[in-house]
Design a protein that fits this description.
alpha/beta; 4-stranded antiparallel β-sheet
């Protein structure tokens, strides 16, 4: 009988050990999942803040792995006594840093904007680098303690050599699940702040599970249980309040001029600032913002456009941002969309019948194209279904685009533009390319030679393409009364032009929205504005100089750059009248659009060609974070 009892005891003991070993595996799986999600979340957040995804992803992953190694090395020097209690402390600390990680990143961004706005460029660089990576290092360092501690725990319950390999393998599987779920199930449906809070919640549950299974229930352990519950309560609250927290940081980002002039204001609540409409998709964050800063267009725009005369209910003072990058202001959008849509058509002697629009998900470019009765079909390709939904359903967008995406002549396709032109067998008379400014290599491919080759394949022989060329106006200078397209280091004109040329387009011509300075109505409005600002007298000479400055600055600020390209060498550019109505564009402004002194593109200089395999775009400071439009 005694032998049977001893065998039963040994069997029961072995079963309990196996049971606890299985629970160690589960804890390993969960904490590995949390660790990789923290890493990806931090890299994703700093990439959104900075814009240079590859650079910041690489730095963040490198710092995380380095700190992970430091934590692993130092874990071997810690006394193994009370290792479960120490692992519990690590998990609680990880949950804390993980919960605040995204909020901390946004706070670093706001302070960095303060330094940039005050001209402290070097300090801004140091702060964004070390500030953002400090939270990365903290989480990586603590994560480095987890695996060695879990291996030691597993070895206490099993003498098998394979148990260490199993723990390691399960850690990899947990990381695999986190890496797969993050882009497919977390980012498309949840805010970054929410993801941080939810994963921290899971981390605390893992800590709770750890002490409830492996530590006897004594007074000290009750305190640990209490600590878990105390932590879980505020986490539960902030998970449901994450939308409000995100809006708080969005207000600080978009309305920062109220804060940057006084460092103390950075910490203010911004309760009185207007609300921001935010929408999330798998591709981007869409923000609709009320214009808050003074804009010269507020003074002078009426001198150049009839929009509010014929459409007095058109919404004014609204701005659209994608991932924090400025897209348009509703009060000035016709400068961009009328030049973009109409100048290429008016420059040819035949109105296209079949048009392809790539991007332009807000529907305003399509609104302009629908003014031509001769256009029989427009195929609109937009990658983001949420952007397309807003353009077809949101009151603001419908008021601006006039329901263009609901028109029977428009065929909307929700797909990637690159894939569409690569696989399409359709031919078009005109192709419009309206994409976000290339701030990283992901958007750079939409400005690549490979992409333009596919675009050319979809174009009829006598057709044309026109693309937005952001940044080219930075190289335009007034020289001896004419506009010189200066090929400097900052302007990406060469990169755009030679890339389009290398794709097989013989004719590559730039044009800009070049409004006139000699506008009497504009000068009158500028005069009224100056008189309203000066309580004391101002001399006539000073007033005339101020008027010149206001009008000149407005004209420069309103310049948008485009490239018009055809398969064959184009004949001389000339205005061809069309039976359409525009608020701003006329024959005089059409002619001014091509008054650029530039070196014609004859032979390809391959060192400037932007390729998927060898990108030359974007041309920007990789260390500069994203800003709203105001100080870019």
């Amino acid at each position: 009988m005694s032998n049977r009892k001893q065998r039963r005891k040994r069997v029961n003991k072995a079963v309990k050990k196996d049971d606890k070993l299985a629970k160690i595996y589960w804890i390993t799986f969960v904490v590995a999942f949390c660790s990789i999600v923290y890493q990806l979340l931090l890299a994703h957040t700093i990439a959104l803040i900075a814009g240079s995804a590859i650079i910041w992803y690489s730095i963040t992953v490198g710092v995380f792995l380095g700190s992970l190694g430091i934590g692993s090395i130092l874990s071997g020097k810690i006394n193994k006594k009370n290792s479960i209690q120490k692992l519990f402390l690590v998990e609680i600390l990880l949950a804390f840093f993980g919960a605040i990680s995204v909020c901390f990143m946004h706070f670093v961004q706001i302070i960095d904007i303060y330094f940039w706005a005050h001209g402290n460029i070097k300090l801004a660089f140091v702060f964004i680098l070390f500030g953002s990576q400090s939270i990365v290092f903290s989480i990586g360092f603590l994560s480095g303690f987890e695996l060695p501690m879990l291996m030691n725990m597993a070895n206490t319950y099993s003498k098998e050599k394979r148990v260490t390999n199993r723990v390691l393998g399960i850690d990899y599987f947990g990381s695999l699940l986190g890496a797969v779920l993050f882009p497919l199930a977390l980012v498309p449906f949840f805010r970054g702040i929410t993801i941080g809070f939810v994963v921290a919640f899971i981390n605390v549950l893992a800590a709770f599970f750890l002490i409830s299974i492996f530590i006897p229930r004594d007074k000290k352990n009750k305190k640990r249980f209490t600590a878990c519950f105390i932590f879980l309560i505020p986490l539960s609250v902030v998970i449901f309040k994450s939308e409000g927290i995100e809006k708080h940081f969005s207000k600080k980002y978009y309305y920062y001029p109220q804060a940057v002039y006084d460092f103390k204001n950075i910490f203010s609540s911004f309760k009185d600032a207007p609300n921001i409409e935010t929408y999330h998709s798998a591709y981007q964050k869409i923000d609709i913002v009320n214009q808050q800063t003074f804009n010269l267009a507020d003074v002078l725009m009426d001198a150049y456009t009839d929009k509010l005369i014929f459409d007095e209910n058109f919404p004014i003072g609204k701005e659209l941002y994608l991932n924090g990058d400025w897209q348009f202001n509703s009060g000035t959008e016709e400068i961009y969309h009328e030049y973009f849509a109409h100048v290429p058509i008016l420059a040819t002697d035949e109105i296209p019948k079949k048009v392809l629009v790539l991007g332009a998900g807000d529907g305003m470019l399509t609104r302009e194209l629908l003014k031509y009765r001769e256009i029989e079909k427009i195929v609109q390709v937009e990658i983001d279904p949420e952007m397309a939904r807003l353009s077809r359903e949101h009151k603001l967008f419908l008021a601006m685009n006039k329901g263009s995406l609901l028109d029977k002549r428009v065929e909307l396709k929700i797909t990637d533009a690159y894939s569409f032109v690569r696989n399409s067998k359709e031919k078009f008379d005109a192709i419009y390319l309206d994409f976000p400014t290339p701030v990283d290599y992901n958007t750079s491919r939409l400005y690549s030679r490979e992409f333009y080759v596919f675009v050319r394949k979809c174009l009829n022989d006598k057709g044309f393409i026109v693309l937005d060329a952001p940044g080219v106006t930075s190289g335009i200078k007034l020289q001896q009364g004419s506009l010189l397209l200066n090929e400097n280091e900052k302007s990406p004109w060469k990169e755009y032009a030679y890339t389009v040329k290398a794709a097989g387009f013989e004719s590559v011509i730039p044009f800009i929205s070049n409004l006139e300075k000699d506008n009497e109505h504009a000068r009158k409005l500028a005069n009224e504005y100056i008189l309203s600002q000066y309580t004391q007298g101002i001399s006539s000479e000073e007033k005339e100089e101020a008027i010149d400055d206001i009008v000149s600055n407005f004209v420069l600020d309103s310049q948008e750059s485009f490239i018009f390209a055809q398969k064959e060498l184009a004949s001389e550019i000339a205005f061809h009248k069309a039976d359409i109505s525009t608020y701003l564009l006329n024959q005089k402004r059409f002619e001014r659009a091509f008054q650029l002194d530039y070196k014609p593109i004859e032979k390809v200089e391959w060192q400037y060609v932007n390729s998927v395999l060898k990108p030359t775009i974007p041309k920007r400071n990789f260390w500069q974070i994203r800003f709203p439009y105001y100080i870019q």
